[in-house]
Amino acid sequence: MIKETVKDAETRMKSAIQNLEDSLATIRTGRASPALVEKMPIDYYGSPTPLMQLATISVPEPRALLIRPFDGSSLKTIERAIIASDLGLTPNNDGKVIRLNLPPLTEDRRRDLVKIVHNRLEECRVSVRNVRRDLMKDLREFENEKMISEDDLKKGEEELQKLTDKMVSLIEEIGKRKEKEIMEV
After folding, report:
1. Staple 67 to which of 12, 61, 98, 177, CB 3.0 to 4.6 Å?
2. Does domain 34-101 have CATH number 3.30.1360.40?
């Protein structure tokens, strides 16, 4: 009973961390990365479609992205979506491909990006703690319904706390790594 609960907690916490990593991949650093735009929703024939399903995205230079649509007619739509996004990049369209040149980040912009990273880290920590809270409640219910003993409850709570601490320290590591990437000139 307790092992299953801890396993469930671990699965849910890992998915929260995976969401964090996906979210942080879209935050710009000094280098160009396809992750910056690959999940960007493009209105393709009326339905939002991730850019990576409509085009190949490559990095020809450290500060440039090259987007080559599979369907030439979607070029303008992709260009409009990039302009409308919060990336602050101007696409260059030559009729076949879109080039995105990433200007160097200013010190102020780097600090703003670090703040965004910190907000996302906090959201992830909160969701990990929410998983812990929900499953602690489940363990207490098991104990109230006499499905587990009081000693088992204590052990389960300790295991959940250890798991939570491990996940929170992993979140901190991810945050430090991303912050270092952003501040690297």
Report:
1. 98
2. yes
Say whether 34-101 and 2-25+106-183 share the same fold: no
Q: What is the pLDDT of residues 161-180, one digit of tens each?
A: 999 999 999 999 999 999 99
Task: Give domain limits for the chain.
Answer: 2-25+106-183, 34-101
Indicate the helix (H) or strand (E) that contains 162: helix 150-183
Mean pLDDT of the residues in the chain = 90
| Average pLDDT, integer, range 123-148 | 92
Residue from 93, 87, 88, 90 nearest 72 by CA? 93
115-125: buried (b, 16+ CB within 10 Å) or exposed (e) per residue? eebeebbeebb
Mean pLDDT of all residues in 38-58? 91
Closest CA relative to residue 81, chosen from 38, 43, 54: 43
Whole-number Å distance between alpha carbons of 78 and 41: 9
CA distance 65 to 20: 23
